[in-house]
């Protein structure tokens, strides 16, 4: 959707000389949703930013301990994001989007959703890592 709306915006602006102002808001909303949901998928798949240089330089026990620490930090910080974003969504519940007849919360609701997914996926990964540690 992000690519299609951006393409339409460029087409309208440069070919038809008629800027479609609503496309900028849709593109921004799509980008924010893409980033936040991508972060949750990164936690699920374990593809978030890691320092492989450090992880490969230490032993397997320390590496697992570091991975558990990172997962605990992800869960904890996601909890902070969940709390803060729920408060923010509640405070901005009466706002309306600038160019579209829709609530502004349509863009903000991805924050608590993503944080909740990161907590869920983080707990899932943490359980797997702890079980793996006990077996090894």
Write up this protein.
Helices cover about 80% and strands about 0% of the residues. It is mainly α. The protein has one domain (about 1-135). The longest helix has about 30 residues, at about 60-90. The radius of gyration is 20 Å and the shape is elongated. The N and C termini lie far apart (about 45 Å). About 20% of the residues are buried.
Main attributes of the structure:
single chain, 136 residues, mainly alpha, 6 helices, 78% helix, 0% strand, elongated
Number of distinct helices: 6
β content, as a range?
Answer: under 5%
| Broad structural category | mainly alpha
Radius of gyration: 20 Å
Distance between the termini: 45 Å
Strands, total number = 0
Outline: elongated
Helix fraction bin: over 70%
H/E topology pattern: HHHHHH
Oligomer: single chain
Number of domains: 1
How would you summarize the topology of this molecule?
Blueprint: H1 2-15, H2 22-45, H3 52-57, H4 60-91, H5 105-108, H6 110-135
Helix pairs in contact: 1-2, 2-6, 4-6
In short:
This protein is mainly alpha-helical and 136 residues long. The chain has 6 helices and no strands.
């Amino acid at each position: 959707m992000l690519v299609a709306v951006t393409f339409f915006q460029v087409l309208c602006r440069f070919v038809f000389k008629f800027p479609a102002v609503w496309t900028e808001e849709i593109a921004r909303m799509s980008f924010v949703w893409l980033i936040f949901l991508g972060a949750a998928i990164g936690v699920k798949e374990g593809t978030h930013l890691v320092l492989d240089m450090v992880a490969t330089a230490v032993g397997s026990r320390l590496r697992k301990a570091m991975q558990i620490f990172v997962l605990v930090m992800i869960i904890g910080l996601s909890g902070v994001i969940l709390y803060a974003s729920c408060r923010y969504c509640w405070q901005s519940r009466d706002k309306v989007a600038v160019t579209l007849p829709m609530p502004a919360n349509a863009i903000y609701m991805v924050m608590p959703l993503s944080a909740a997914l990161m907590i869920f996926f983080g707990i899932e990964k943490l359980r797997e890592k702890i079980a793996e540690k006990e077996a090894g």
